[in-house]
Write a structure and sequence with these properties.
The protein is an alpha+beta fold. It folds into 2 domains: 5-88, Arc Repressor Mutant, subunit A; 93-254, Beta-Lactamase (2-Layer Sandwich). It has 10 helices and 8 strands. It has a 6-stranded antiparallel beta sheet with strand order 5-4-3-8-7-6, with helices on both faces. Strands 1-2 form a two-stranded antiparallel ribbon. The protein is elongated, with a radius of gyration of 23 Å. The protein starts with a helix and ends in a 10-residue tail after the last helix. The model is unreliable at 4-19 and 260-264 (pLDDT under 50).
Length: 264
């Protein structure tokens, strides 16, 4: 079996000391086999991962006993079973995100007296997954389940801005040619700042403060506050944005995005 350039590069790098070496090796085996449609023999695993037979043999046997791998006695090849797929579908990632987000959004509303909502991409639209109203008797909020065109919202533009160049180009190509330059500049500005602070295009008098939410795959949502002036004021726009960014950072961490840093 020919090793891919990525696998060759990985194999050529010196192995760093791991806090949990057995877990590291197990993940290497699983990831390696995910790229092998026909599976791999023990020798191919050893060669492809740059590990010794002693390092991998017991580990591979254990993974097979636990039904993560299947062993074909005829070809002597190991391959992935559906066990990881089954485990990944025991919980709904969207439900997890909402469950983690709502308490944080409630804290944001309590600190700022402003509403906030969490939105995700739904094809060419933004779908509002959760919304928390201001604790004050009167205020502005977005309805849970509401759908908006991506280009008309800060939520949508923030998600696209952090979705990578290919996604950005697809987004821009859907727009009329005369609007692409301005829209591209908007996305670049958001990516540079790490957030958007802009007057709403939909509701007059509302100032959109919007920040990205990440998980291990990258950006998955945006959290937005439709800031309105209230008297007496609990937090000014800059203070509100800082609180929103911290809340979004906490949510990202809870979803597994360990690299999230304030201001990134």
């Amino acid at each position: 079996m020919t090793k891919s350039p990525a696998k060759k590069a990985a194999a050529s790098k010196p192995k760093e000391k791991a806090a949990v070496p057995s877990v590291e090796k197990a993940l290497e085996v699983l990831e390696f086999l995910s790229d092998c449609k026909e599976g791999a023999t023990m020798n191919e695993l050893v060669d492809g991962l740059g590990r010794s037979m002693g390092e991998l043999y017991r580990l591979v046997v254990y993974l097979t006993e636990q039904k993560y791998l299947a062993f074909d006695k005829v070809s002597s090849r190991y391959s992935l079973t559906l066990r990881l797929f089954e485990l990944s579908h025991r919980h709904n990632p969207t439900e997890q995100m909402i469950g983690n987000a709502v308490p944080l959004m409630e804290r944001f509303a309590a600190l700022t007296d402003q509403s906030c909502h969490l939105g995700v991409l739904n094809r060419a639209n933004i779908l509002i997954l959760a919304s928390i109203a201001s604790p004050r008797p009167a205020g502005y909020s977005v309805r849970t389940g509401a759908i908006f065109p991506v280009e008309a919202t800060s939520t949508g533009n923030v998600i696209v801005a952090f979705s990578g160049e290919e996604a950005r180009q697809r987004f821009l190509k859907r727009m009329p040619a005369r609007r692409r330059s301005k829209a591209g500049d908007r996305l670049s500005h958001i990516a540079e700042l790490g957030y958007e602070d802009l007057e709403s295009e939909i509701v007059a008098g509302v100032r959109n403060l919007s920040v990205p939410v990440f998980d291990v795959r990258g950006v998955v949502a945006a959290m937005t506050c439709g800031y309105i002036e209230q008297r007496p004021r609990s937090a000014d726009p800059e203070e509100t944005l800082a609180i929103l960014r911290n809340i979004a950072s906490e949510l990202s961490h809870s979803l597994g995005y360990a690299a999230m840093q304030t201001g990134s």
